[in-house]
Amino acid sequence: MAEDLSLFDVANSKLSDAQKLTLEAHELLKEDLERVRQERAAFEEITKTLKEVHFGCSVKLNVGGKIYKTRLAALLKDPNSMLSAMFSGRHELKQDEEDGAYFIDRDGKLFRYVLNYLRNDELFCPDDKLFRKELLAEARFYRLEGMIVCLNRLSLESVILKRNDEHLSAVISWLPSGSSFSLLFRASADGNSSESFHSYCDNKGPTLVVAKSETCIMGGFTSQSWTSREFAFVVFEVTNFINYI
Q1: pTM of the prediction?
Q2: b/e map 125-145, b = 16+ CB within 10 Å
């Protein structure tokens, strides 16, 4: 009987050792599989980058006399844009016989910012009112709604509305879908008086007004032009402590 117990203990010990070895092997296998997964993901990312940088189908453009060369994928990035429609294959386009480029009769210098927006999904441009107005015209021409939204947000940024502020998103939500705009009047720069307001804002069509009093931000959108000085005087009389955007 004692001998049987001894054999049982030995067998039990060996079984325990086998279980430990199995668990260790399982953990090692998991680690190997995770390492292989990470290496495969890294390889796929490198392959994707190489394709984008070196092997993508390229297109040569002549925009207003300035030559650009980019990947076809960049031009197709916004499916609703004019560029996507041009190079979708649905239309027959002719290349210039001299330089092999597709000609677009627009501002060549501004197209740099259009192309970089399509490449990066971000808009970087000078902080200049006239420049942004010109760039907005290009965004409208190419029907790049995302770029129009970016320029609208930049135009609204001020001492009242900050970048990435929830108030900025709320103000933009007041506007009709697809609308764009440019700054007409800023009280801190153009004069905080009813005369200044009307000299800049009368008969301009739909307008957006944003104002701040202490920590409160308020305003509204109107589809009508400003014309009535009597009405505006009442508004300014009540809110003459407000700093307009």
Answers
A1: 0.53
A2: beeeeeebeebbebbeebebe
State both tokens at 87: 């190079």
In DSSP terms, which residues pair with 212 in a beta bridge?
A: 217, 243
Look up residue 98 and give its two tokens.
């001299």
Write the DSSP symbol of residue 51. I
Q: Are 64 and 105 in contact (CB under 8 A)?
A: yes
Helices (H), strands (E): how many in the chain?
10, 6
**Gap between the Cα atoms of 244 and 187, Å rounded:** 5
- Sign of the four-CA dihedral 153, 154, 157, 158: negative
Amino acid residing at 244:
Y
pLDDT in tens, 6-57: 666 666 677 777 777 788 777 888 888 888 888 888 877 766 654 454 445 8
- N-terminal to C-terminal alpha carbon distance within the chain: 97
Q: How far apart are CA 164 and CA 153, in angstroms?
A: 9
Torsion angle of alpha carbons 188, 189, 194, 195, nearest 10°?
160
> What distance in Å separates the CA atoms of residue 135 and residue 142, rounded to the nearest whole number?
11
